[in-house]
Amino acid sequence: MRWGGRVGAGLAAVVLGGILSGSARADHAAHGSRSAAGSAPSGVGLSADRAARDGSRSAAGSARSGVRLSVEARPRGAVRPGGLVDYRIEVRNPGESRLPRARMTVRKPEGVSVIGLGRGCREDAGRVVCELGALPPHARRDVPIWGIVDADARGRQLLVARAGGASARSVVRVRPGTDLAVRVRPPREVVAGRDFVLRAQVVNRGPRTARGVWLAAGSEARRGERRIGTLMPGESAWRSFTLRVPADARRSAEVYATAGADRTGDVLPANNSAITTIRIIRR
């Protein structure tokens, strides 16, 4: 039996800001910028206490220049181990003059791994470096950074953006996770082109309660999903799935089961899935 992994999706949209010295560059949103629908307005002047109600902290920095930055973090759902985080850096030129060029550096949170960057950005020694191009007067551009929360991430996760003499920061807090594990009980053999039943189990190994648990299983020809709900530490749930392998399948087929929790992170994603091979017979 092989073990695979699956991460749950949690999303935080972060808008960064401040004031840049000299000049500024930014990717246009049309070059791959992504932000969550219905996100809050720019965080200029937003207090840290207000933002903290959503599990994040916002701040603004400024320098004597013509580019404006602000920062706001608003997680969508819990920021949890294995969850996705979407950062959006917003760069503005409120002045009347064109700003020819600038470089922005972003220190990513220690517990977040970068999985995608906007055009003009690269990862370098734990930082993200963005060459941002020219900003016309009154222009506004977005720079996306997509990340995944590490399985062992804990507590405050600080992101700091700097350009010129200005800096802006955002803090999100990672909620503690638990360990969900999956195993399957397949039939010894199946008939090609016919239905068969696969039994799958998800168990919460702790140390915390898992909420919004689901369990899915599938084969090449069919997939199914069951909602489990809440699992306390030590609790488990078995479910049956009616699957099928293609009629033209030969010798063997792979089947799998995978589990996750919509509202709880997983500290060991590697055992969230189980894959096994079953023998095919023909009649």
Brief characterization of the structure:
With 283 residues, this protein is mainly beta.
Give a quick set of tags describing it.
6-stranded mixed β-sheet; 283 residues; mainly beta; Immunoglobulin-like
* Global mean pLDDT: 75
Helix-strand category = mainly beta
Task: Please name the CATH topology of the largest domain.
Answer: Immunoglobulin-like
Q: What is the number of strand segments?
A: 22
Helix % is under 10%
Count of domains:
2
Cα-atom radius of gyration: 23 Å
The CATH first-level class of the largest domain comes to: Mainly Beta
User: Number of helix segments?
Assistant: 1
* Span between termini: 27 Å
CATH-derived architecture of the largest domain: Sandwich
Shape: elongated
Instruction: Write the H/E string, N to C.
Output: EEEHEEEEEEEEEEEEEEEEEEE
Q: Would you identify the regions where 5 or more consecutive residues have pLDDT less than 50?
A: 1-64
The description of the largest β-sheet is:
6 strands, mixed
Relevant CATH superfamily of the largest domain: Immunoglobulins
Strand fraction equals over 45%
What does this structure look like?
- The structure is a single chain.
- The protein has one helix at about 50, and strands at about 1-5, 10-15, 20, 55-60, 65-70, 70-75, 85-90, 105, 110-115, 120-125, 125-130, 140-150, 155-165, 165-175, 180-185, 190, 195-205, 210-220, 225-230, 235-245, 250-260, 275-280.
- By secondary structure, it is mainly β.
- The chain has two domains: about 1-175, Sandwich (Immunoglobulin-like), CATH 2.60.40.10; about 180-280, Sandwich (Immunoglobulin-like).
- Strands 1, 16, 18, 19, 21 and 22 form a six-stranded mixed beta sheet that branches. The protein has a six-stranded antiparallel beta sheet with strand order 4-14-13-8-11-10. Strands 6-2-7-12-9 form a five-stranded mixed beta sheet, with no helix packed on it.
- Strand 13 (about 155-165) and strand 14 form a beta hairpin.
- The longest helix is centred in the first third of the chain and has 5 residues, at about 50.
- The radius of gyration is 23 Å and the shape is elongated.
